[in-house]
Amino acid sequence: MDDTAKPAVALVGAGSIGIGWAIVFARAGHPVRMFDVSAAALERAPSAALERLHALAQAGLLTEQPDRVACRIAPVAALPDAVAGASIVLEQVLEKPDLKREVFAELDRLAPAGVVLASSSSSIPASVFADGLAGRARCLVAHPGNPPFLIPVVEIVPAPFTAPATTEHARALMQGAGQIPVLLGREVRGFVYNRLQGAMLREAYCLLRDGVISVADLDRIVTHGLGMRYSVIGPFETSDLNYRGGLAEHAERMAANYAAMGAERGQNDPWTPDLVAKAVGERREMLPLEGWEDRVAWRDRELMALLAFRRSRGV
Question: In this structure, which of 33, 64, 72, 119 has its CB flanked by the most CB atoms within 10 Å?
Answer without folding.
Answer: 119
